[in-house]
Description:
The structure holds 2 protein chains of 2 kinds. Chain A is α+β, with helices and mostly antiparallel strands.
Amino acid sequence: MNEGRKEIFQVVFVLVGIVFLVKLFFIQLLDDRYAQLADSNSIMKEIEYPSRGLIFDRNSKLLVYNSPEYDLHIVTKEVTNFDSARFCEVFDITQQELKQRFVDLKKLKEYSPYRPTVFIKQLSNYDFAKIQERLDEFSGFYIQPRTTRAYSTSAMANVLGYVSEISKNQLDRDSLKLYRQGDYTGQSGIEARYEAVLRGQRGVRYKLRNVKGIEKGSFKNGDYDTLSVPGKNVMTTIDLELQQYGEYLMDGKVGSVVALEPATGEILSMVSGPSYDPSMLTGKKFSSNFMLISSDTTKPLFTRPLMAMYPPGSIFKIVQSLIGLEEGVLSYDTRLACDRSLVNCHGHPNPTNLHGAIQYSCNPYFHQTFRRIINQNKSPNTFTDSRIGLDNWREYVKRFGLGAPLGVDLPSEKGGQMPTSNLYNRIYGEGRWKFSTIYSLSIGQGEMLVTPLQMANMAAIMANKGYYYTPHLVKAIEDADIDERYRVRHETGIDSAYFSFVQDAMSDAIYGTAQRAIIPGIELCGKTGTAQNPHGHDHSVFMAFAPKDNPKIAIAVYVENAGWGGRSAASIASLMIEQYLNGEIKRKHLEAYVLKGDFLDPVVRATPTPAVQQVVPVDMEE
Amino acid sequence: MRRDDAISNKMDWVTVLIYAVMVLLGWINIFAAVYDETAQQNIFDLSLNSGRQLMFIAASGIIILAILIVDMRFYEAAAWLIYGVVIFLLILVPLIGKEVGGNKAWLGIGSFGVQPSEFAKFATALVVAKIVGSVGFKMDRFRNQAILFGIIFLPIALILLQKDFGTALVFTAFLLVFFREGMSPFLLIIGISMAVIAILTLIVDNQWYLHGGIVVLALIIVFFGKRTIKRILTIGVGAVIIIGTIESFDYVINNVLPVRHKKRLEALVNPDFDPMGINWNVTQSKIAIGSGGFSGKGFLKGTQTKFDFVPEQSTDFIFCTIGEEHGWLGSLIVVGLFVTLLLRIIFLAERQKSRFARVYGYSVASIFFFHFAVNIGMTIGLFPVIGIPLPFFSYGGSALWSFTILLFILLKLDAHRSQMLQRL
C-alpha cells in the first residue's frame, strides 16, 4: 500500500539539497553583485580632504587661505527627546525650514538613519562658537569641521576666482572620478585654472564598519589606504599693493587696468571694474550672494581685462608705424600731408613726419601709411594686391599677440579680432574688396578688436623693443615649475631700432595728448586712444610703459564711456606707474581727479549718446 | 557492563559521526558569527554564544548518555506521559513564562531557561509513533486521522499562543509521516496546490487573469479527454473551487491579513521589494552568503555577519556565516551533511522491525527536513523568513537538546531493533 513512499522521501531530500546548492551556486559564484554589495555594506571609504593650496602675491603676502567652517551632521537613530523649538532657537532657523530639512534629508540617496548625514551645512566659526556648548542638548547631532576659502583682501576677485560645490555637469565630465558630489572645486580665475595644483590629493582610508556605521578597524591592515597630500601653494605675479590701488582708482568705473612687467610678462595688476568682494562667494551665503552678483547688470563676474573686446583706436597707429618701417614703405622722415578729405583730424603742424604723426596722432598720415602697407603693387589687380597686402600685414599683427588669445593662465580669455582676407571675402566676396574698403583699420577702427590684456602686452612689446613673454599670473608653484610656455620669448621680428624711434615719439606724445600722464622724474612713454562706442560715450584708452630706459612696468587702461584717452585712462595709468615705481603718490590732485570720476565735458555729458554714428570713423583726439 | 558493550557495538556510528561533525561545525561557526576582532576573544569565553554553546554541547553529552542508559522500552511506554508533561509545560508558559526577545516561550529558574516548545517535538513524535504503531492501527480510518491531527494540533495551538509561528509550523512536518504511513497524498497535494495558488495570487495583480487561465485550462483538459458528463462535472467543480480559493486568498490578503504579514508575503514573491525594510534580513543574508564566493572569505574573516548586518546571525541565520566565510564549498559540505543525515535516518527508519520505531524515525527525518529546508531556504531567499533554527548549527540550548534527544532516541531504538522483533 505504501510502496514507493520511502523513495519519494529520498528523492525529495536529495532534490531540496540540489536546489539549495544550485541557488547557492548562482548567488555565490555567478552573481558578483552580492560581493560588491557586501563591500559597500561594510567597507567605509573615508575621504581625508587635503587642505587647499594657499595663494600669495608676488611679495609673499597671503591672499587666499583656508578657514574652518562646520557642518552639522545628524544620526537620526540617535535623536531622542528632540526639542524642535529649542533647536530652531539655537540654530537660528524657522520651524518651517527645520521641517523642510528633515524632508530633504530623507530624500538623500545616501541617507541612512545609522550614519551621520549632513543636516546643516557651512556654519561659520561664529555660529559654531555660539552653538558649541548647547550641542549636547541635542542627541544625535554632531559637528564635522571642514575648510572654506577665506580672503585677506577684498581685491582681485576676478583674478582669484571662486570655489564652490562641484556642479552636476562638472561631475559628469570628471571621467577620472577625482570628485564626488559635495566636493568643492575652483570655478573661475586662478582657483579654476590651477585647480589641479591647488586641490592636492585626497587621501582614502578604508575602514570596516558594522551595521550601525561604527568603525571596526581598518580594512586589510590599511594596505589600500593613501595619505592625503595637501594642495600646493601658489605665488601669483600680482603686486597686491598695486592691485589694491588700481581697484581704488577704478572704483565706480567700468573698465580694465592691466599692468605687466615687460621683462617677464608677469601681470603685476589686473583690475576688472566693477568687481565684487571675493569673500562674498564663500560659506553659507554663497548661493544668495552668487544670485546677487550674477544678476548684477554691471556684470562683476565678467573679467573685462580678458573678455571685453574694444577697437584699439589710435593706439594701433604705433603698430602701423612699426609695420610700415619694417616693410620699408615708411622712413623716419616720411612726411605726409594731413589730408582731411578722407579721415578727420585735429589741429597740429602740417605736414608732419612719422615722429610728429605719432605724437599728434594724425589720422590722414596713418591712412596713407596703411595704404602703403596694403598696396605695394605686388599685383596689377588692385583687389589681389589688397589681399596680398592684408595677408602680409596680418602676419605682422599676429606677432604682436593680436587676433588670438595670448594664452594667459586664466580661463575664458578672448582673442579679440584682427581681420583676415578670409573675413573680407566672406563679407564682400572674393576679389570684391580693396584698400578703400578696409581703410578704417589704419587707425585701429573697423573690424578690429583687442582685449585690454593684449593692449597691455603691446605696451610690453614697446617697452622690450620688439618681443614679449606671454602674460601670466602665476610666478611660482610650490615644488613645481610654472608652465614652460611662459618662459618662451616671442619675437615680433621687427628691428628694435624702429622701436627706439617709436619710443621717442611715444615719450613726446605724452606732452601732446596726455599731459596728465606726466610724472616728474620718470620718463614715461605712452599713447592715448579712444575706442569708438556706438552704444554711448567713447571708451577712454591709454597704453604706456616706464621708465623709458629699462622699463619696469607696461600698462593698458580702459575706462568705458569716459571719453578721451588723455583724461581718465591716462591719469589712471600714470598714477599706477607712479605707485609702482615710487611706492607713493605725490600728485594727490590727480588722484582726486580720478576718484571724482568726472571725465566728460559738460557739453558731451548733456547729450548722453553721440549725436551721429559717423560714417567715416573719426578719431576724436586732442 | 555487557549491556554497554552491546550498545557500543550496535550503535549506528555513521549517524553519530555526522552528528558530532555538525555540532562541532556549528560551535565553530557560532564563534565566527559573534567574533569581534577588536576584542581579543576566546571561543571558550562563557560571555560569548560560542562559550555557552559548548556548555550546551556538554550537556547534550549527558543527555545522550541518559538516553542510551534508559531501557529502550521506556520511550514507547512513557510516550503519553512525556507528551502530557510537555503539554502541561506549554500551558504553563503563557502563565508563568518569561519573555525573551518578544516571544514568551521560556520557562526558567533564574538565568537558566528552556523552551518547552522545542521538547514538544520529540514528545509529539513519540506519541504519533505510539498511536500509529499500535496493533491494528489503520491510517485510512477517519477516526484515526482525526486523533493524529488532534495530537499535532494541540502543541501547534499552544505554541501559537506564544506567538512562535515558526516552531508551530514545524509540526506540519508530521503530515509527511502520515503520508509515509498510508495517508492519502490528497491532503499534501491540496496543501501544495493551495500554496502555489496563494503565490500566484500574490504575483498576479489582477486575479481575473488567473480565473481566465483556469477556465482555459479546464476547457483544454475537458477537450483532450473522455468527454463524459461525470468528468466534465468534476473538472467544472474543481475549476470553481480553485477560482473560489483565489478569491478568498485575495480577500484574506487584502482585508484580513495585517499589513505587516501582507508585506512579508509580498517580500517573498518579490525579492527586490523594500530591501531596507521588510526584506532587510533576506537581503543582508543573501549579501553575506553571496559575497562568500567559491571558497569564502576565510574563518573569522566574514564582514557581513560579524558586523551585525545579518540579524540573528548565531541562531536562525547561522548559515550566513558558513556561506560567507566558507563559500560555496562550505555550503556544499553543510548541505551534503544534512542530506546524508536525512537519508541515513530514512535508512535507519526503514530497517526497524517495529512500526513504532519506523514511524518515530520518519518523524525525526521529517522534523529535521522541515528545519533544514525552511532555514536554509529562508537565508538564501527561497522561503519567507520563518524563525526556526538550523539543527545542530544554530546557537541555543533547548534547540540543540531537542534535536539531540530526537536523534538519539532513534539511535537507541535502532540499536535494539532485534530486541523489538523478539518482543513481538
